[in-house]
Amino acid sequence: MKDELTEDAFFNGRIRIKQNRFGYRFSVDAVLLAFYARPRPKDTVIDLGTGCGIIPLILAYRNPETKVYGIEAQQDLADISAINIEENRMGKQISIFCMDMKILTNDIIPGPIDIAISNPPYRKVKSGRINPDRQKAMARHEIKATLFDVVETAKRMLRVSGRFVVIYPAERLIDIVTQMRASGIEPKFTRMIHSFANKEAKMVLLEGIKGGRPGIKVDPPLIIYRDGGSYTDEVEKMFLP
Description:
Layout: E1 5-10, E2 15-20, H1 28-37, E3 44-48, H2 54-62, E4 67-72, H3 75-87, E5 94-98, E6 113-118, H4 134-140, H5 147-157, E7 158-169, H6 173-182, E8 185-194, E9 203-210, E10 217-218, E11 222-223, H7 233-238
Parallel strand pairs: 3-4, 3-6, 4-5, 6-7, 8-10, 8-11
Antiparallel strand pairs: 1-2, 7-9, 8-9
């Protein structure tokens, strides 16, 4: 498997991330989500659909007292996560579970959890072309886990007043807001994400509180790239240690 992996450095080489050369690879969304998770000291965090473990690694590095659990249904991706955790010597902070999130309970992971985060599959199974690559298809389409499954799992695992932080396509904003409210997670913060300042929003960042009261804060848009294609100052800072 090692011949099929690439390695990327984060935080000036302090974290090294292996991921598939040709299969599913994480994007800037993971960095944004890790930045907005903002755990407090000794919080417990669960990453639903952890992939290669990039978000747990960022969180653990920035928050040495935080415990992070990564849930991944695909065995090959869970194996890569385990390699990354071991090689970055973060086994005391991060635990990876290869399992279907729909059967996850606090009997499996000690809870309740303070923060649940997810960059979930964003396309319905019958919408658009299914990628022939199995990893990419499962990461992008609701094959193993639907939006309902992700939000209900977050609800089940979170403590009262616990936070759910998610990045999702802007075109499905109503879907996820509706599902969060139906699951008892009240949307409290949102920010639209634009690739460029003159382009429409493609993604949206949402944070909800389990059992929270109505009332949402809407931040100014987050712009990812300058006109020349480099990251904006705000996003560039998210890649710093």
